[in-house]
């Protein structure tokens, strides 16, 4: 009998979780029993992310050892991220104006959710500027950055350490061997943890559905359909066009990442798939030094799904309150989102925090977020999947741009993975 693949196991866990959550809707015991299983899975993943990022970047940089080349890759990466996230914001705005998901919503029929837990973080975020983002990339204490999961600071420290190891030549070889051992061990651990993924997915989705129920989607159904429809359009048309321009088939990438996409979607956490994405884009033909830099950096600078959603949700709330946003207001929203959406990927409920920090600056009532907080998890699942596709494609684009993409690997890798 053929063994069921991991992607199918995760999908079965997802379906069973939805069924159990729907049957026991409103029963707090579901959370009591299932939440610990989901939390353990997420903690296992978070436990391995930092060691993998540090070890792979150090190995890649020490192997390259060319600071000019790294600077060139970094510059191109940030330019690409800025272009794509700006397009994502514009797509979100256009969708909100075309579909008008907030028009005619009866706010009396909506459940309000407490959003105070996000307020303090959002207040800190309002003072956050692009200059501060770049200043904060340099850690005063790399150990503290690792403890806090500050990805940009971790990447910067790893780059500097990798260059240092390369510069000292023979003396650095034992250190490099140490990091190679860490990377190999962590990827082995990742593969073992992934066997637990179907149970983690079952628990997390079961808790979500039992808390909010399918009924909570009905009053905000137009918003959910607008978000999901726009996300699909963005992946197929925008990212599909980008992939075509660089000579890569987007559907090969999606087929290769099917397990990671189901996992990211059902856990609403792109961190859960970071190690596997780096591994798989390498198998598709992206050199290690590009995959190790672009994918983790994208987690702070290239959240396509999140920025698209933030633009759409902001206009949705304005429509709900009957506020007519002029073209100037919407241009202002784009400019604010371009700054506030960067560099805070480590913050819990990142899209919510960004929206809280943004709405007030463009004259939209922040209280409107309380109406969509209840279904935010369902929307978060979609934007996480888009973030995963966007970051994976970014690594391929930069590799192609640098002329380093090993195109002969892609068909073989896709065949082996499927």
Provide a descriptive summary of the structure in words.
The chain has 418 residues and is mostly helical. It has a single domain, classed as Proton glutamate symport protein (Orthogonal Bundle), CATH 1.10.3860.10. It contains 20 helices and no strands. The two termini are 18 Å apart. The model has no long low-confidence stretch (mean pLDDT 84). It is found in: Cell membrane. It comes from Peribacillus glennii. Keywords: Cell membrane, Membrane, Symport, Transmembrane, Transmembrane helix, Transport. InterPro entries: Na-dicarboxylate_symporter, Na-dicarboxylate_symporter_CS, Na:dicarbo_symporter_sf. Its main location: membrane.
| Portion of residues within helices | over 70%
Largest sheet: none
Low-confidence stretches: none
CATH H level: which superfamily? Sodium:dicarboxylate symporter
Helix and strand pattern: HHHHHHHHHHHHHHHHHHHH
Keywords:
418 residues, Proton glutamate symport protein
Structural topology:
Layout: H1 6-23, H2 28-64, H3 67-99, H4 116-126, H5 130-136, H6 142-148, H7 151-167, H8 173-194, H9 197-212, H10 221-245, H11 250-256, H12 258-267, H13 274-284, H14 288-301, H15 304-320, H16 327-340, H17 350-359, H18 369-372, H19 376-401, H20 409-417
GO molecular function: symporter activity
Organism: Peribacillus glennii
Transmembrane segments: 7-25, 45-65, 77-99, 151-169, 196-214, 226-251, 351-373
């Amino acid at each position: 009998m053929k063994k069921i693949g991991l992607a199918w196991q995760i999908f079965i866990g997802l379906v069973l979780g939805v069924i159990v959550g729907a049957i026991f809707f409103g029963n707090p015991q579901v959370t009591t029993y299932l939440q610990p299983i989901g939390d353990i899975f997420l903690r296992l993943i978070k436990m391995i992310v930092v060691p993998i990022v540090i070890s792979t970047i150090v190995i890649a940089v020490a192997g390259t050892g060319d600071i000019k080349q790294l600077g060139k890759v970094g510059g191109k990466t940030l330019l690409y991220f800025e272009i794509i996230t700006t397009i994502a914001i514009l797509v979100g705005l256009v969708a909100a104006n075309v579909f008008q998901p907030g028009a005619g919503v009866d706010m009396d029929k909506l459940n309000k959710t407490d959003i105070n837990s996000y307020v303090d973080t959002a207040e800190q975020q309002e003072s956050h500027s692009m200059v501060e983002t770049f200043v904060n990339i340099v850690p005063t204490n790399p150990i503290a950055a690792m403890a806090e999961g500050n990805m940009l600071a971790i990447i910067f420290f790893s780059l500097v350490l990798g260059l240092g190891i390369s510069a000292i030549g023979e003396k650095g070889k034992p250190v490099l061997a140490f990091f190679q051992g860490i990377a190999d061990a962590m990827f082995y651990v990742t593969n073992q943890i992934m066997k637990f993924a179907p149970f983690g997915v079952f628990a997390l989705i079961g808790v979500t559905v039992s808390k909010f129920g399918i009924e909570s989607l009905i009053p905000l159904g137009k918003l959910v359909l607008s978000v999901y429809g726009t996300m699909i359009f963005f992946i197929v048309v925008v990212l599909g066009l980008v992939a075509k321009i660089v000579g890569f088939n987007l559907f090969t990438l999606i087929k290769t990442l099917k397990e990671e996409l189901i996992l990211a979607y059902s856990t609403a956490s792109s961190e859960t798939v970071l190690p596997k994405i780096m591994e798989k884009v390498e198998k598709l033909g992206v050199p290690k030094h590009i995959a190790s830099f672009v994918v983790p950096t994208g987690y702070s600078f290239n959240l396509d799904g999140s920025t698209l959603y933030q633009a759409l949700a902001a206009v949705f709330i304005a429509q709900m309150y009957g506020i007519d946003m002029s073209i100037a207001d919407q241009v202002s929203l784009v400019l604010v989102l371009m700054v506030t959406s960067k560099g805070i990927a480590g913050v819990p409920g990142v899209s919510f925090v960004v929206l809280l920090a943004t709405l007030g600056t463009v004259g939209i009532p922040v209280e409107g977020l309380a109406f969509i907080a209840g279904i935010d998890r369902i929307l978060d699942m979609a934007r996480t999947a888009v973030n995963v596709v966007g970051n994976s494609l970014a690594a391929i684009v930069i590799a192609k741009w640098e002329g380093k993409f090993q195109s002969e690997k892609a068909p073989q890798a896709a065949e082996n993975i499927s």
